Amino acid sequence: MRKLKGLVLAGGKGSRLRPLTATGAKQLVPVANKPVLFYALEQLVEAGIDEIGIVTGDTAAQVEAAVGDGARFGANVTYLPQAAPLGLAHAIVTARGWLGESAFCMFLGDNFLMGGIADHTRRFAEADWAGQILLKRVADPAAFGVAVLDGGGRVERLVEKPREPLSDLAVIGVYYLGPEVHAVTPHLVPSARGELEITDAIQGLIDAGHEVRSSLVAAEWIDTGKKDDVLEANRLVLATLRRRVDGDVDPDTTLVGAVVVEAGAQVRGSTVRGPAIIGAGTKIVDSYVGPFTAIGEDCDLSSCEIEHSIVLDRSTIRGVPQRIADSLIGREVVLERSPLKPQAIRLMLGDHSVVGVV
Question: Could you give all domains of the chain from N- to C-terminal order, each with its CATH number?
Answer without folding.
Answer: 4-226 (3.90.550.10), 241-336 (2.160.10.10)
